[in-house]
Amino acid sequence: MIVAVGAVTGTFAHTEATLVWLNKDSPSTPGEHGMTFAVDVADLGGRQILVTVSGEIDYATAPDLRAAISEAIDTLNPTRIRVDLARVTLLDSTGIGILVVAYRISRQMGIDFSVYNQNALVDRVLTAVGVRDLLCPPAAPAQQLVPRSRSTLTDRAEDSAV
User: Fold this and answer.
1) What's this model's pTM, rounded to 2 decimal places?
2) Which of 60, 65, 121, 123 is the most buried (most CB within 10 A)?
């Protein structure tokens, strides 16, 4: 269980297989800079969950992310958690701390926790602070295309003509 350090109160809104964290103090509304923050938790079945985060993960919103992940662990009892950061526009040290603590606690509970789909800015931040390798699974190696030499193609054409 991820314990919130502070008073974050909210509830999960259940809609089919999706849980949406609603913080009663700041319910996914535009913040001071006009940015919306949202955390969606989807039950993918097979005890796998997908946490999709949008907006800025900073000192003001990180407790919501922590509470949503914690509640999802308690409610859904997953064996795998994937955190999609494609729509994250800012990730500060507080947000990084939340992800690292969630990773460590998940591992202690036998849950496979990973972050993926981060944009280039977030990827650079994770790399700069040295947690990218911890949080992000290695990308599947791209299939290497080996160009055939012309002589090989010519030889095969001649062999098939014989």
Assistant:
1) 0.68
2) 65
